[in-house]
Amino acid sequence: MEPIGIIAIAVAILVLAAGSMFLLLRPRGKAAPPPVEPPEVRIPEETQAPPKGAVEDQEATTTIPPPRTMPAEPMVVPPPAVEIPPPSAGRMVRLRARLARSQNTLGKGLLELLSRDRLDDDTWDEIEETLITADVGIAPTQAMVQDLRTQVKVLGSRTPDEVRALLRKELLTQIGTDLDRTLHVQPHGERPAVVLVVGVNGTGKTTTTGKLARSLVGDGRSVVLGAADTFRAAAADQLQTWGDRVGAEVVRGPEGGDPASVAFDAVAKGTADKADVVIVDTAGRLHTKTGLMDELGKVKRVIEKKATVDEVLLVLDATTGQNGMRQAQVFAEVVDVTGIALTKLDGTAKGGIIISVQRELGVPVKLVGLGEGPDDLAPFDPEVFVDALLGD
Ligand SMILES: Nc1nc2c(ncn2[C@@H]2O[C@H](COP(=O)(O)OP(=O)(O)OP(=O)(O)O)[C@@H](O)[C@H]2O)c(=O)[nH]1
Fold this sequence. Notes:
It is an enzyme of class 3 (hydrolase). By secondary structure, the chain is of the alpha/beta class.
């Protein structure tokens, strides 16, 4: 065969082979490019979020493997920082602006009326009404009007300064400047002084007990608190918070337990710790007079097995007026009240209650509550009070 023939046959074989290879390898139909799958990410078991409902089921099932982490260090909760409260002196001066509403009624109102050129019967009626509205009470109001009438006659024409001096003197006479308003909280040698806090619930009894503890600590005394208001569970917790803040021990009993037993334990603790003062917060429910007498009488008798009750503080809410006064009278008949803590005197126009409560109960107001802040309880100072009412 001619070389040209051989070449032609070889080319033909090559073309045939290439054609059949193309047919074999050609893709069938128009295929889409394969989707690009994201690479699989494996999350370590501990960090996977639990399926919905797994948290609730955790207690009921044992299928959740225990955590593989190292056991955590036990959490140490730092004890609450003990505060150093300010001393009680000068508090009433600091809080005098809180008497603004009583200042408008008793102070400015009376000053304006007494400064009129002619003081006719209508004006004296207005003066009387102002005093009654401020809760001065009927009998003290009549006494005040009588005194003021006499002195105005003596004076004749009056300068504003004279009117102010006249009213200042009269208010101080009615409030009393020579009553013993000191709190009896001196310890007896190794034995602490005991303060019993009584009064209707909601008057601010527990708050006043806590504030008093703060103020005594601020004056450098050591205090033990007795949560003998076992009737209201939250009262003991409330007192605990007050005590914790100033580092005062709080003795409490079971809810609904015997208040006398808590009072006894508190006095025992105060004696053992050589505390200066034990303050006992009582429930003093006004169910019946005999029930109240039994409860408070027992608390007092039990304390007297170990100590003496130096002070029985009656807490009275200044905003409750004559109704509060009637309730206070029941307490005064049941225990020998030695002093009154008049709360919520801030924001009330009824500052005259100081005059009526002292007259009705025959005991001095020793403390006044002038706000919800922890240091808003002040030893009552008649001169600062009257000057705050009359303005400078
Ligand atoms: N504005 C004002 N609020 C006061 C004053 N004293 C107490 N309060 C508030 O009166 C409310 C009642 O006080 P509590 O101390 O819980 O009353 P309580 O008499 O102890 O009540 P019980 O524990 O149920 O006996 C609280 O909101 C106190 O903050 C005060 O002087 N001024």
